[in-house]
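It is worth pausing here to work through a concrete case rather than discussing structure prediction in the abstract. The textbook approach is simple: state the sequence, then state the predicted structure, then interpret. We follow exactly that order.
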Amino acid sequence: MIQNSQYTKPIAVRTGLVVIVLIITLFVDASAQATDNDQLLEQQPGWAIFYQQQLSSSSTPFWFVANRAGMFSDASTTNSLLQARYLTGSEHIFPGITVQAGFLGTALYSDVKPAIRIHNFYAHFEGYRFRLSAGRYDEVIGHGAPHLSTGKMMLSRNALPTWKISLQTPEFVDVPYLRGFVAFKGRWSEEWTTDERYVDGAMVHRKHGYINVRPIPQLNLIGGIVHNVMYGGIHPRLGKTHDFKTYLSDIFGQPHGSSKTPLSNGVAAYDFSAEFHTNDWTLAASRIMYLEDRVSANIRSPWDGLWSGWFELHKKNGPVLVDYIMYEHLNTRRQDAMDFDLRGRTKYGMHGDWRSGYTHHERIFGTSLFGYTPIVITEKNSPISNNIIVAHHAGIKGDLSETIRWAAMATYSRNYGVCTD
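Step two, the predicted structure:
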């Protein structure tokens, strides 16, 4: 149950949302496993055609809509999706440099929002530990459970991807002379939104940096900072909001003018994980501390964010009924509130000027459990309808045979709407 009125204390215990999904899928390659929404054939070069049919007596079940890159509408009851995907092999164009390109076109017949889209169209240039990418493509940012997740809080596959240019080290790079004991990775990208927004033509800047300490070869102790900034565009009241000086100020989190905060809509996180890898299995746990503003950076809300743990088998002799188990706990109640403040006061995912919020095409960029209600956005409202959440989520999957895999997810959440004070 979602409460859109002002959050007050004490809170009566409400009935949460329980969703259970069972998926049985025929794979061309039973060992292929993508991340987050487990799309088929994603990494196989060449052409692939995929058809999906959804029918429901009411609205489409939550986990058939969430983390599907914005392909389906929550209110739909009938969805017929045809995908055509093409992926090139990794081709050498210069010594030490390769290129790989991909295309994904989708045609959706739906009782709510039928659409034909170029969903992915991109090229990755890779060499000397770096990757330069241009175009539109699905990706996730943040460490955590690799499959059946509610979605990474910084960037999941919940929303339609933006058009972007990015430069990153996709894998950890060993620091010279430390014999693999310490490694790092980083990213810098600029992205363009394409939806109808309150601030027309807003852009997104993303960057992150991670350090990986390996006391022993099997153990990875990872820590990093992720920073996302929504900026630019034409504001209906402020007009053009950014020049190069303002851009630099915002991406480095500096105050704007007489304000104590940047002009832009910033979303960030401290991201930590501990992962133990062997040739046969992985056991890991992660913690993302969600940061909405400069006050959050001082860890004012230490319990807010996403906790997760998972176990995965890698080496199997034939089908294994269960080869992956994961658990997540999402808590976004405090939101920088002191004991005497209203919970939810920071209004995660929302912003006073960038009123469309941390969204793209009516979907949250991050966790799929945040609520979005399509409305006509004005100076006094926001489409973010639920961001005060306590949730538990579990997933499990495995093999039924050499060619058939199964998966199940269960989610329980208490949803308190948004703080409107």
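Step three, interpretation. Helices lie at 244-251. The longest helix spans residues 244-251.
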